[in-house]
Amino acid sequence: MSGAQHALRQALPLFVLAGLCLASLDATAKFLVRDHPVLLVVWARYAGQMAIVTPYAWHRAGRGFWRTKRLSAQLVRSLYLVIATGCFFTGLRYLPLAEASAITFMAPLFVVALSLPVLGERPTRPRIVASLAGFAGILLLVRPGAPALHPAAVLLVGAALANALYQLATRKLRDENPQTMLFYSALVGTLLVTAALPFALESSPISWRDGGLLVLSGLLAGVGHGFFIAAFARAPAALLAPFTYLQIAWAVVYGILVFGQHPDGWSAVGIGIVVSSGVLLALWERRFARRA
After folding, report:
1. What predicted TM-score, i.e. pTM, was given to this entire model?
2. Contact, 63 vs 121, CB < 8 A?
3. How far is residue 112's CA from residue 101's CA, in Å, rounded to a whole number?
């Protein structure tokens, strides 16, 4: 067994569990935002991540895990993630889970489009082809008469754009400690949403069931990011990237089992195109990385 195969064998179960946790978080969030403020659900998500990421960063990087030479860039990067989360959870209130998840996977398209002006990287032909194919899949999802054709789809596109900017900002901070970046991602979201939370809370009480689901969402966020950290510690991102799209499969399953939402024929085709274009691009990137 080659070194790459051994690394993938160790990391893949953790990566799949991470995707399952985050897909479960999305399903829990969709259930909660129907009756509760989006900010409350976002707060629970960030509080859980903060509770797990902080001790991990301290353990791996020592007491100075919070020190950074590029504080403003860390704050802007983390703000992009907060915007992405808020837009996505708001969109979940109105759109089916599977279609909403697929639209947010437009992020790689935006990364390709913005890589030249932001990073000075000229996109390659495979990246352009995969992006165009993915865009065609998105058009099928938001075609006239489709369940995803709703004004809230704009929020999901915004979530994808913010996520792309978050990824590009991460690349620009590649000289920073990964544990420091993880910490600031959790810290900024927790502080911002906590500060805004009193203005969004409603007077209606939270039931024990919904309180338990809020706690569960925080745990899912924290544990999911913990699994991602452990997976990337065992294998490079290029090996794991094709499996990211399993999250859409989980979203389809949750949409059917929990919400009774079955993607229609053309929506299923659109989801398939988005997944296929992303997987093929990830496989090409891995092959290119091996040659480099």
Report:
1. 0.82
2. no
3. 19
- Pick the closest to residue 98 from 267, 289, 290 (CA basis): 267
> Which residues, other chains included, contact 255 with Cβ-Cβ below 8 Å and sequence gap of 6+?
27, 96, 97, 98, 261, 262, 263
Residue 200 DSSP label: T
| Torsions phi, psi for 58 (to 5 deg) | -60, -45
CB atoms within 10 A of CB 117: 9
d(CA 30, CA 93): 6
For every residue of 60-117, DSSP letters joined together read HH-GGGG--S-HHHHHHHHHHHHHHHHHHHHHHTTS-HHHHHHHHTTHHHHHHHHIII
Contact 278, 244 (CB under 8 A): yes
Tens digits of residue pLDDT in 93-108: 998 888 888 888 877 7
What phi and psi, each to the nearest 5 degrees, are found at residue 236? -70, 155
The gap from C-alpha 238 to its chain's centroid, in whole angstroms, comes to 17
**Token code pair at residue 187:** 């810290």
pLDDT in tens, 161-206: 998 888 888 878 877 888 888 889 889 999 999 998 887 776 667 8
Residue 112 burial (CB < 10 Å; 0-12/13-18/19+)? Answer: buried
